Amino acid sequence: MSTEALLLSQGDIARCLDMAQTVAIVEDVFRAHGEGKVVMPTKIKLDMSSLGIPNWMNAMPAYVEPAGLYGLKFAGGFINNPAAHDLPYVMGSMMLLDPHTGVLVAVMEAGYITAMRTGATAAVAARYLARPDAGVVAFVGSGVQAGTSLQALDVVLDLREIRAVDVRPEARDRLVAQATEMGIPCRAVEDNREAVEGADVIVTATTAAEPLVMRDWVKPGAFVAKLGSYQELDDALTVGADKLLVDHRGQAEGKGELAHLFEAGQISQGDVYAEVGDVVAGIVPGREGEDEIIIAAMIGMGTEDVAVGAAMLKRAEELGLGQRFDFLA
After folding, report:
1. Which residues lie below 8 Å from residue 174, measured CB to CB, with a gap of 6+?
2. How would you classify the pairing of strands 38-39 and 44-47?
3. What is the DSSP letter of 296?
4. Is 73 designated active site?
5. pLDDT tens per residue across span 230-282
6. Which of 2, 33, 42, 209 has the most other CB atoms within 10 Å of its CB?
């Protein structure tokens, strides 16, 4: 058997998959979680701040039975990258391997994959948890993840209005320009409250680690897609939601939006309605009432990366992209 691995750059993988395909793959991943067709431990965080390096990396191993591969994504945040090095905040790499032999089949840049699959998770959750007529979306945080979430939400919803807010005016303005180019009315706002009030869908994707969206601003029937590893929601909003969902129960207890609430005893696993995969698989219902306020607190899963990476690998092979290297030679 061949022991060569395919090496794929960001440019290679960007040619392999569009957002509609990514949304479909991520939806299948959530369904596989609900059906028990994945193996995924909680992610392991390497926090280097104790030694004076203000950065972190997550190791995210996973096996996805439908994809037929297992892999490891190693990715994290590098706070000084954008300003000091003209590099993205999120950097990462991924390996894909044969589950029967352990042979390495691909190594690829993972920052692009992370952005695409994270945007897709917002869309899949919205498909099942937002009101069917949802069309007004507020982005609290208008960076890369907001951009891919906008692309993905446009796949599943009839978007009528976008509101963008960010502490960095340049990021907000880029999102406005992106929405405008997509033909979706969009306005830049200076205040989180102005963005959120009256919105059908609220997407948070920041590094703020403080409440940015308050309970009193959120209208009945709204859906909140909370992305990433930081607290961004008012505790009263989180605790008082009609339904609180997560992408992975084990990860949610120790990381992200809910960690401090679990630690303080303000919520328990019994307060979490379901994992998003349980809804996608039809095990439990999603939205049941027009006025339900529903939150999906998602911090990303290695299964999403492996499944998207596997699809990109297949497409790259069809297109003849990448370089081959035999690590066992």
Report:
1. 142, 147
2. unpaired
3. E
4. yes
5. 899 999 999 999 999 999 999 999 888 999 999 999 999 999 999 999 999 99
6. 33
